[in-house]
Amino acid sequence: MQEAQDSAGVVLVVDDEADLRAMYRIILEGAGYDVLEASSALEAEALLRDPEHERPEAVVLDVMLGDHSGLDLLAYFRDSSHASVIVATASQRVQDAVFALKNGAFDYLMKPISRDDLLLAIRNGVERGRMQRELTARRVLDPDAAGDEDGPAVFASLPMRLVRATLEKVRDRRVPVLVLGETGTGKEVVARWIHETGSRRRQPFVAINCAALPHDLVEAELFGHEPGAFTGADRQRIGRFEEANGGTLFLDEVGEIAPSVQAKLLRVLGEGKVTRLGGADVEIDTRVVAATNRDLAAEVAAGRFRQDLFYRLEVISVHLPPLRDRLEELPALSDFLLRRFADREGLAERRLGMDGLERLAAHDWPGNIRELENVLKRSCLLSEGPVIRADNLVFSQPTATTTPAPAETPQKIRTLPKEMARETMVRALAETRGNVSAAARRLGIGRSTFYRYAKQVGLPT
């Protein structure tokens, strides 16, 4: 075996078939990789904990490991090693691939695996694994550095990556950003990301919920006051704009601000000055990120929100789609929320099983990420083992599986581009656990039509 410094990379092969492990070893060592082997989940976990072994940059993980599913190990490998996990399986079930890729797998290969496909996946996986390890090292050496290059868990879906792409262009600018979306979609998380990854990250981030402020105290809270400015003002107080000077002020539920205060807010944004109640002007350099779940254009039309303030705030505007339209985020979000809750409560680590994730994906999430967090907290407390299964999940209302509405009409499927049609059909199969008849009903088409469309878009069923 080559010395570690001359190796093309370290690969861990987890498969309960000795012949397959031997074949992988021959192919990988012939291409210059160092190979570690494990025949079970327990053996793989023990190997990762052993300081005598090199840390793998890529893992080839079999789906079936005796009586266990290798898919339940995805979160463990992702969190314990930063390795790129390449799932290998003989299963033709589309939902296995969907689950694996959504729950952290880097790639998914069907057995029998050709030499070229294996080496291509390993080469790409090792490169990504090394990049992840380098990013982790940078954060350890410089805790104040910007966060993960991929952003927080809310940027795991395509719609949210498009939002991030817009924000990346303006995060170092002073222009206001208006973040729109339903309650619980992660507007404050996005505001904090703008601040923490931008040039103002070493300065204050101040958040205020405008809807929670009594109307008679909004001005004093935002702009501050001098002693004697009003009854009970016995000392000077700086407002939130001054508190966030040099940094970012997050105005949540900005649509709730009274019209009388909106005029003063407009002046602050335009002139970069605040006037304390009973005092003089104070110059500030505060970047504003505002958020609301209201339709501000409709509020303007109804005379409840100033048109000029609306235009000032929406120089850069992004809309956060509801969680039901970005289900790709469920694995990353669930993993993050479970780990954070377990850490705070001193509980043993919990992770989602495949059936648990499938049930989450079938829910319509009217409460968005906040509802997901509540469901996971309850489930974390009530589950007895480390893996949260579907029957451990406790919802506050019936899940979408009880009365599934068609996801798309046949006419809509016909008009979709090929890749979007394929993605829609894969999602329907994932939500119905691979049941073609149920997936067809969910799409509002017949079983034979489903098979015909599947063939057209290159989807194996």
Salient structural properties:
five-stranded parallel β-sheet; 4 domains; alpha/beta; 19 helices; elongated; 461 residues; disordered N terminus; 44% helix; Helicase, Ruva Protein, domain 3; Rossmann fold; 15% strand
Which segments are poorly predicted (pLDDT under 50) over 5 or more consecutive residues? Answer: 1-5, 135-150, 398-411
Give average pLDDT, whole number: 79
Task: Output the structural class.
Answer: alpha/beta
Approximately how much beta-strand content do the residues carry? 15-25%
| Amino- and carboxy-terminal Cα gap | 42 Å
**CATH H level of the largest domain: which superfamily?**
P-loop containing nucleotide triphosphate hydrolases
Task: Give the radius of gyration.
Answer: 26 Å
Question: Fraction of residues in helices?
Answer: 40-55%
Overall, the morphology is elongated
Q: What is the CATH level 1 assignment of the largest domain? A: Alpha Beta
The CATH architecture of the largest domain can be given as 3-Layer(aba) Sandwich
How many domains is the backbone divided into? 4
Number of helices: 19
- The tally of strands reads 18
How would you sum up the major sheet?
A: 5 strands, parallel
What's the CATH topology name of the largest domain? Rossmann fold
Spatial order of the strands in the main sheet? 2-1-3-6-7
